[in-house]
Amino acid sequence: MFAFISQYRNLREVLMDQKLAALGDAYVNLVYSVALSKRKGEPTGAKVDNRLLAEALKKAGLRSLLPSRIDRHKQADAAEALIVYAWVRGSMTMEEGVSILEQGEDTVEAFCSFLLTAKKKLDL
Description:
- The protein is mainly alpha-helical and 124 residues long.
- It has a single domain (13-122), classed as Orthogonal Bundle (Ribonuclease iii, N-terminal Endonuclease Domain, Chain A).
- It has helices spanning 11-16, 18-40, 50-59, 72-88, 94-103, 107-122.
């Protein structure tokens, strides 16, 4: 979908790409804000907490793909990289992400589901 995005050989490469994570940060916050807006019935802007994304990454079983000594911020970056990569590759639409987050009662569980769906659709 975007020529400036590399084709990665494996999931670990996606998770470790800091430039992809920077784009993912903005994308994840947008998708989350749209989901909250739909749920509340009014425009809402929100930033997803790193702790929440790191917990979702761990719950999704993806933490083991990262180096052992990596902080929570970098774990959250990995989650953001995976989510935006699924979108830029055309494997997942923004609407699918919004729907997953909108339906989830528990935010960590919702992001865990988002990550697992992205991973499955990318087939890495």
